[in-house]
Amino acid sequence: MLKATQLPEYRSRSRQKEDRMKLLQWGFFAVLFALSAYGQTLDRVVAVVDNEIILESEMNAQVQFYVFNNKIDPNTPGIKEQVLQSMINEKLILAKAIEDSVSVTDDEVQQQLDAVIQQRIQQFGSEAKLEEVYGMPISRIKREFREEMRKNLLTQRLQQQRFGSASISRRQVEEFFQTFKDSLGKVPEEVELAHIYIKPGFDKTAHEVALTKARTILDSLKAGADFGEMAKRYSDDPGSAPQGGDLGFVRRGQFVKEFETAVFSLGEKQLSSLIETEFGIHIIQLLERRGDAVHPRHILVRVPRTESSDQAAITLLDSVRSA
Question: What CATH number is associated with residue 218?
């Protein structure tokens, strides 16, 4: 177990900026990972920083996030040590922030907490999916993470106060590199890319087949068929089909335009007509409204891509390239 009691005297400006950008994501990921694992395994302390501890579950969660975010081999030597050192540095900055009486308001904590929760909901697809993955309602996730969010914001505030106006010249960068180049890690080569992307359209025949299937499902629903069972049986959305098409409570801005327009125009328990988006053909039912949030479920009928539609897109791209 490591014990840290001193604040590092030097951290590069680029590393400070990178740490600030990732801090809230890392903290949120670590806390939710630890909460979802609570009661399943015994935890242990891997570091003590002033009055703060770092648990093994938190470190492992951040290692997973770091590996995923940077697309590197999880078996790369030294990753755990690198991540743990970063966590220790952040705890040291937190201790200094508390010592210097740095403060954040409850409104700032709530605003940032809501923003991070919404980001996670969008990543998982719905509130229901987020709650399912972490085994607890959104309300509990917010309660559990509120104090961690406050600490993260205190850390950010101190970094901004100490380093926000720092100015480093090119000469200072070059002198630093020459002094420490033997201990600096290698930076992978980077390139800047631009591309033109054309998504293949739907083949007319495949589109008609999908429409016929969707109309049949909609007719069955109007005749009294159970929506949840029909979704489990026929929906092509792997994320919601097992839950009977349930998408949980959502707000505006979380769906593509055509789907969102249809959802927010429905009354409770009302079925939509066939709604076409880039994903296919949808049948939507609104279950409930709660303030500015709605609770829909849907059945998706995908239109399969065909060789002819792919070839049409390739032909168009070839003409653009040769123009």
Answer: 3.10.50.40
